[in-house]
Amino acid sequence: MLAAQGAVGAAALAGCMGGDSDEDLLEGTGLEPVLDDVDYNEDYEDEFEVLYPSADLNPVDDDYIFNPYHPRWNAGDLGQEFGFEYLAVYHTERGEYVPRIAEDWSIDPDTLRTEVTLSEDYGWSTGESITAHDFVTGYKIDGYMGLGMENFVDIETGVYAEDDYTLVIEPRDEYTDMEEELWVGEWAEMILQVSEAQYGHFVEEFEDATTDEEIESVQQSLLEYDVSWDEVLYSGPWIFVEANEEFADQIPNPEHPIAQDWEFFQRIGIYVDEEGIQSGEVDWGDDSPDLDDVPSMYGEGPLPYDGQSFALIFGTEDEYIRDYPEVRQAIAHAIDIPFLTETAATEGTGYDEYSTGIDSLYVEDYVETDALEAMSNYGPEDTDRAAELLEDVGFEHDGDEWLTPDGDTWTLNFPVGDWFDTHSEMISNNLSEFGIDMDFYVEEFPTWQAETQQNHDYDMTVHLNYGMARDYHPYADFDAVFNDNNMGLFTERTGMIEEEVEVPEVGNPDGDMVTFDIPEELEAMSTADSEEEVISHATNLAWVHNQLLPAAVCFPWGGGHYWVNTEDWDFDVESDDWLTSNRLTHYLLQNGLERV
């Protein structure tokens, strides 16, 4: 859907600078098609096995944007993770980074100066070598767009190529005592979506810019960069070699050291979802809850995790939601989150029992057990508790509706993007049945994003990327909760939680009130010198989030059960290589896929 904060930040930037239509944003790049320079087997249709993934991504007529900084960039398997390669990927089962283009790295324990040695085996789809200069280009542009590691690294001087295959990254002086696991998470899982050849001139333009206006002009030019599917330099295992009105074909990248040995291609757009399954011609797909009667021959694969969470986000427009955590808690208690999860989430997904700001699949790694056990569980519907909380604030239940302390009908503005129409309708129905008057409506997602989310014009809404743990360190989660450009509580959603807060003592909801300085907790976590210290600060902030509840996290967002034709393909559904941030792609790169 959206790449961490990248696509969100780019979209916000585009909205701030005006121009909300593709006609306004998309202009020519001056790039030429590069397929003539790609050494691929043009007889792939006759000689390769064909696999039909259940997706309809087709870049014909530039319906799919390949500029990762454009607001419509779609970071899905078939676009981002099939087409572009990582420096390293985090394997969540093993708790470590698995090298990809990176061959090895060393970190100075005193300064955190990092040298990354790159493999010389990887190349762009046109045959040019992938070098450290390409990664420097990516890191620098991310930083200049406010989407990278610029908080910890001086983008102009702190990331550079020592030679073609040695990448150097150095933190700012004030972060040389940064916790090492957090430091590695800032740069290790870098996906190579841009090349120096095609994007290097933007770095030069950023470095030459001297005023805010000049920087914004370069940012706008980057947002407008309209790279077509046949102009892209691909670093990953797949490349597009055909796109027409009927279908699009991806074949293994002949310059990728692993994929170049594969002998199958993907035709997109022929079969979609259940149609592909029932045809008997589909060899893998995404078994979402919308698919019925999946043939038993395919079995059930593992549940891939997208590194995101689905959450009910509270706004600051309604004074009672803004000023009273009891009101936010009451709303959460009035929703049947387990039933919502069972109905709307991928089969097998468990609901979030804690709502800590850390994804429920990782929270036990970061938060002390005693604190978790003492936290409020907002998941199961508890209308008695919800009523008690509202009455404590001064609300009155009159007939079948709740009245505010001023005696007015309490109406909540609940606009959502159409990606989440079913989820939000269930939430709205729960709250209506409880007696809250709901102004609930669904907007097309780009409209919701530009007009509602960016302007925070809601009392509550729903979205992903909240408490996501996708950087594998609690600092990343809480920094996003409090400082994210779009949903951060210390930025645009100010007023709900102050920097200094009072909550019951950690682990005892009925205990004495204690005070936490949130920025101090974040800073201490970033420079902690032991795992125990990291967990201590994470526990404090998780407790604060659970008690004050600026958002009710509902469930981790899964991409579906991948299933395969196990009769025909040698596919190990038990492999823990699924358990990475880029599930299917990583499995194929680690294990391949061959006919039995």
From TrEMBL:
- Compartment(s) where it occurs, according to its Swiss-Prot or TrEMBL record: Cell envelope
The biological process GO terms on file are: peptide transport
- Pfam short name (any one): SBP_bac_5
The yes or no answer to whether the keyword Transport is present is yes
GO molecular function per UniProt: peptide transmembrane transporter activity
Q: Which UniProt keywords apply?
A: Signal, Transport
Is Transport set as a keyword in this record? yes
Query: What PANTHER family does UniProt report for this protein, alphabetically?
Result: PERIPLASMIC BINDING COMPONENT OF ABC TRANSPORTER, PERIPLASMIC OLIGOPEPTIDE-BINDING PROTEIN-RELATED
Q: Which family does it belong to?
A: Belongs to the bacterial solute-binding protein 5 family.
This one is known as: ABC transporter substrate-binding protein
